[in-house]
Amino acid sequence: MSKKWYWRVGFFLLVSVIVVFSVFPFYYAIVTSFKSGSALFEVEYFPRVFDWSNYASVFSGGTFGRNLLNSVGVSTVVVAISLLLGVTASYALGRIRFRGRNIVLLTILGVSMFPQVAVLSGLFELIRALGLYNSMPGLALAYMIFTLPFTVWVLTTFMQQLPLELEEAAIVDGATPWQIITKVLMPLLWPALVTTGLLAFIAAWNEFLFALTFTLTNEERTVPVAIALISGAGQYELPWGTIMAASVIVTVPLIVMVLVFQRRIVSGLTAGAVKG
């Protein structure tokens, strides 16, 4: 009994350390966002005064509101297109047997492993040739490079685990392939769709390199680039309070989304882990 108690206490201590280590940076960013002036250089773990001036300066000093809308729009479009193409591609790769299917899957997995820098120059030339430089469609096209392969790979794995009898029964009833996908398979894929969609949204929301390279004006930039370009009144001044306030504003929506869809995410990540 005592050994069990020791193991349980040790487990809870380990979990507590991991939680504190993971959550403390965000908590300290919140605390710092309420400071200004010399108070920024004082180490305080509990805010004494809630000064909202940093949050007001984030929206009043530039185009941060427009940048926030850009990130929301681009990330939403990327998720919608990735899921649409991912579901249709996973149906073909997971349910239809054809020569070279494994090679296609390995190619998709290999593309997702390429670093962004390796495709940056070629993608830049492509976007400029298509006339999409410094535009939201150009960013959406660039983000599909790393969201679509991941979405296709994950959804194909889930698609392969669905019973073939469901599809055969739908074919007997006269259902078309599109009706099979939308009315038979997609309701069973909701946990996987939520998981992959949320991960694709977070990847597009946090992306920095493509957003910095493929946009030129402040009005077309996304929030990661906008935060990186926040400057103070002088050349050597770095407005930490404003930067922390902007970081909190950008992070809170992701936390809310994860909390809202946490059950779907857990079921999507664990589905298929145990057979039988």
TrEMBL record:
The chain crosses the membrane at residues 9-30, 68-91, 103-124, 136-155, 188-205, 238-261. GO terms for cellular component: plasma membrane. It comes from the Bacteria. It comes from Enterovibrio norvegicus FF-454. The keyword Cell membrane applies. CDD domains: TM_PBP2. Residues 68-261 form the ABC transmembrane type-1 domain. It is a multi-pass membrane protein. This is Sugar ABC transporter permease. GO terms for biological process: transmembrane transport.
